[in-house]
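The material for today's practical consists of a large collection of protein records. Read left to right, the backbone structure tokens trace the chain's path through space. An example says more than a description, so a record of this kind follows:
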Amino acid sequence: MTHLNDEQLELIVQGQAPPPHVVGCEHCQARLAESRAVRSRLQSAFSSIRADAGLAASVRQLVDDRPARPAPAQHPREWRAGRRLVRSLWPAMAAAAVLVIAIPLGLYLAEPKPAAAAELYELHQHALSPETDLYVHADPQELATQLEQKLGFRPAVPQLGAGMSLRGCCVVHFRNKPVGSYVVDTDRGVISVVVLTEKTDALDLGEEFGYGDRVYRATSFAECNMVAVELDGFTYCAIGEVSNEFLADLLSRLVPSEPR
């Protein structure tokens, strides 16, 4: 079995379709998810970096202090144009200097995120997309029945608190296996509750913390927090731009669904 090399990973991250081998290879799936996570962090870093005014002034001073070469007599206009070009490039040169320093530091200092967190983040973004085919029903038991028909098991359902409502559910794929996802509207934002067959230890979803009478795991990716808990042999992971305590409170309301 030949795993993906670095060049193949880069091409897939840029949009090329993965080879069939990836479908059944957890090693390549994990490396691909990690590569996508790194690309996402780099894109965020580039979008937020701005050249500092002091650094731009320093670059300008360095350019001004260079010994001036005499301009060829036959090309005085070209020389003046070149000087104007250098001055116009000061902001870009300063920004480049910032990137040379910031990107390596970001790569070394940024906390690495597990591949599972990156993939769960993508599932949450998929659930938020208006193009996602959600099964919509106000009755949580009806949503559990729908997922049971698709997945072969009946997941627990959340008992909703004040300001919460179930938008619907959908079947998504995690590590190339079908999993269920509830989409919950709250007064603090939209939360996905993904039902996984893996144990929390196998997912490497951060550190343990206690809430109520259960033990949870918490991590984050991009702007989202993620909290996971095991219940009746399955892992339920809540994802959203809210606090870990809010996610844990929602998961604490999970109850076994009633057969229909």
